[in-house]
């Protein structure tokens, strides 16, 4: 499976090269260079985001790096998370703060009061009476009005919960392989799909998190959006690639019987790799941009997520056993999936924005699909192919204590029953 690794290496090399040659714009859109007024004139919000409950009051600041050359009047603007301006004040979850004037030669920060009206989320921006300030729309502040601050903390706890559950899910299978010194019962197709999927996921995360050029492309599409990749996403995806690589090494070192990657799997992997190669070439010759290429690579990851458990489920059916397939990883995956959906529900309720749940059918659908496979594996392991240990006891020998239910039968009665059976 070593041919997967160059994909990740090329992505990292591309990241470093672009990072050295390209200077990032204000990715989060918190700073706007107002070049037409003065090359060094910056306008900022003092914070990048604010969270408040209904009827709660908080203060924000707008400050300037150097004195203005003239008087300007500013008004606040309101956009939804898709960047669409909201002109109907009834759709704004805060009381609209009044406009303010920047006096000539003033550098004092201006303070605005925000009062929560109802749960919701918007991007607060600025607009001026001057038309000579291109880029001012990039200055924005994320405002969230929630039902309860406590639910904000709870959703963060849930997020870390499914992060650790999914991260730990790789270890039960790895430990089982090491303990048995065998990988018999583990589908090699599952491992092959898993490796390619997490390499694609790593490529997407690295590109959006570390490559300024790709960040700028994302900013053009989502001027008020926040990058959907954080450092823990980088860690999780690279960690997954490393652990799956270890499992593949175990396949080479431990007993594996006649197991191998199937022809069907090789064909599907070849199609996916060809798709990735064509997308990369198109991006390299500027027919598509690199952000689009990364989105194409992420689609491969989505396809892998839909496919990867199927070979293992079929393998278990053919063997009529789950021996060699760790149910521990399924328990962890199920836990992570449930917590992920729970977090989406909490966020939707707390912000009164159910479109964040139903408006992301891919994320919700994949989570439900994965949980569906978890139930399938639970059924195979605990119902259909449940294994029972058989203990052989020689005549006259005492049975192992673990074979008796000491809570319902005492030791004396058990001995009498055994003697009666021998007689």
Automatic annotation (TrEMBL):
GO terms for molecular function: L-cystine transmembrane transporter activity. It is found in: Endomembrane system. GO terms for cellular component: endomembrane system; vacuolar membrane. The chain crosses the membrane at residues 153-171, 191-214, 234-254, 261-281, 287-309, 330-349, 361-379. It comes from the Eukaryota. Residues 1-19 form the signal peptide. It is a multi-pass membrane protein. It catalyses: L-cystine(out) + H(+)(out) = L-cystine(in) + H(+)(in). Keywords: Membrane, Repeat, Signal, Transmembrane, Transmembrane helix, Transport. InterPro entries: LC_transporter, PQ-loop_rpt. Belongs to the cystinosin family. NCBIfam families: 2A43. This is Cystinosin homolog. It comes from Schistocephalus solidus.
């Amino acid at each position: 499976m070593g041919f997967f690794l160059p994909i990740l290496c090329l992505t990292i090399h591309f990241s470093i090269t672009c990072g050295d040659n390209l200077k990032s714009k204000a990715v989060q859109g918190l700073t706007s260079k107002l070049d037409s007024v003065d090359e060094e004139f910056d306008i900022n919000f003092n914070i990048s985001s604010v969270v408040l409950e209904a009827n709660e009051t908080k203060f924000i600041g707008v400050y300037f790096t150097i004195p203005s050359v003239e008087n300007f009047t500013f008004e606040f603007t309101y956009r939804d998370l898709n960047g669409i301006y909201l002109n109907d004040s009834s759709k704004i979850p805060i009381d609209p703060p009044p406009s303010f004037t920047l006096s000539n030669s003033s550098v004092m920060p201006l303070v605005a009061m925000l009062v929560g009206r109802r749960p919701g989320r918007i991007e607060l921006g600025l607009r001026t009476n001057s038309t000579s300030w291109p880029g001012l729309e990039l200055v924005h502040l994320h405002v969230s009005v929630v039902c309860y601050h406590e639910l904000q903390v709870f959703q963060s706890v849930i997020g870390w919960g499914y992060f650790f559950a999914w991260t730990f899910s790789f270890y039960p299978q790895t430990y089982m392989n090491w303990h048995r010194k065998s990988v018999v019962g583990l589908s090699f197709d599952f491992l092959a799909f898993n490796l390619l999927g997490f390499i694609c996921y790593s490529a997407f995360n690295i590109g959006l998190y570390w490559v300024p050029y790709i960040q700028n492309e994302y900013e053009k599409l989502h001027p008020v959006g926040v990058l959907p990749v954080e450092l823990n996403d980088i860690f999780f995806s690279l960690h997954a690639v490393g652990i799956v690589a270890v499992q593949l090494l175990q396949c080479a070192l431990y007993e594996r019987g006649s197991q191998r990657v199937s022809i069907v799997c090789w064909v599907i992997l070849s199609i996916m790799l060809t798709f990735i190669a064509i997308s990369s070439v198109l991006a390299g010759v500027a027919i598509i941009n690199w952000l689009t290429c990364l989105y194409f690579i992420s689609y491969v990851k989505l396809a892998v997520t839909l496919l990867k458990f199927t070979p293992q489920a079929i393998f278990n059916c053919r063997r009529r056993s789950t021996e060699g397939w760790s149910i521990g990883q399924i328990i962890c995956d199920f836990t992570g999936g449930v917590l992920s959906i729970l977090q989406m529900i909490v966020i939707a309720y707390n912000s009164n924005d159910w479109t964040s749940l139903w408006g992301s059918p891919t994320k919700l659908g994949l989570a439900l699909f994965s949980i569906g496979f978890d139930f399938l594996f639970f059924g195979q392991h605990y119902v259909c192919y449940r294994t029972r240990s058989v203990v052989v006891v020689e005549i006259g020998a005492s049975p192992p204590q673990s074979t008796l239910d000491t809570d319902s039968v005492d030791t004396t009665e058990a001995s009498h029953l055994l003697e009666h059976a021998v007689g």
